[in-house]
Structures are given as C-alpha cells and as structure tokens.
C-alpha cells in the first residue's frame, strides 16, 4: 500500500476576487481537505474557539515563531500579527491530508519561498470592471480606498507568473469545479506517483 503524503494547495488572488466565497463553497461540499488554520495575536472573540477559528498566541510567542522560521507566512494588520504555522501544515501533510490555504497575494509569495512544493492557484476576476463592481458593492470602502484597492489589484495580477494555475472566478460553482480538478490532477502527476512507487520498490527489494 502506498502511503501518499498530502499536498499543500494555496488559493490566492487580488482583494475582492471572491477567494473566501470559493473556499467556503469548496468546503461546503464533501471533502477530505484540511483548512489551514491561521495563527494570530489578536484577542479571541466571543463564539470563537482556539484551534478552530485561529490558533491564538501572545506577541512574544508569535515573534519567537518568526525568529525560528516556524511560519510559512505572516503579516501585521492593525497592530496584530497573523500567520500560517508551519508545524500544523506539515503534520497534516504527513498524515496524508491535503491542506488548503486561502490567502492574500503577498502571503502566497512568502509561502512559495518557504514551501516551494506547494501548488499555487491564482483566482482571477472575469474583468477589472467586474472586480471594481465587487469592491464597490461591498459598500465598506470610500471611493479613494476603492481606487487604491484597484491599483493594488492591478499590481497583484502582474504577479500571476508565480502561480501554477489560473482560475477565472466568473461563477463560483464553476471556479470550485476547476479547483477540484486541479487537486485531482495534482495527485495523478507522474512525478508524485513515481516517487511513491520508487519507495515501494525499494521496500520490496
């Protein structure tokens, strides 16, 4: 029996492209994927659970993890740290689970540096016009902020070359189907299977 290790899948793309919506829909369906739980120094909110919503750490603990290269990526927002713990991801992969990470473009590039064997999927807006509408329809941002986000999105789209796959998010259900196809095809890649069979043959000899 081949013991197959899991694969880290990273879904990323510009702000407003619908990463969270695609991820939620993917996990609403029957799946063995494990969602990569982020770590944060912000206070736990009512109704949240440690190890379910986030791993909650003190600033000192978090900074030690940074120092010891125990995070695949991290960023600071409004005086709090957020990051992806390496240990959790590696434990899940070792146990044979695929791990799914939904993250901003900058974070994804950090993950690629720290974990190049991951599979990187870029979620693309059907058009910049559509992206603009999505950001405006959130109704949470001033027109100046919308412009800044669009400029940022343009820059992030230029970073697409760092990714393995591109999925256009024109319809959520179709985008989810494409992500599922990517997951399936990655498991069937010759290099992955060859590595496992080589190990199997060595064990037999």
Automatic annotation (TrEMBL):
Residues 6-184 form the Guanylate kinase-like domain. Its main location: cytoplasm. The keyword Kinase applies. It is an enzyme of class 2 (transferase). It catalyses: GMP + ATP = GDP + ADP. The keyword Ribosomal protein does not apply. Keywords: ATP-binding, Cytoplasm, Kinase, Nucleotide-binding, Transferase. Its EC number is 2.7.4.8. Belongs to the guanylate kinase family. PANTHER family: GUANYLATE KINASE (PTHR23117:SF13), GUANYLATE KINASE-RELATED (PTHR23117). This is Guanylate kinase. The lineage of its organism: Bacteria, Bacillati, Bacillota, Bacilli, Bacillales.
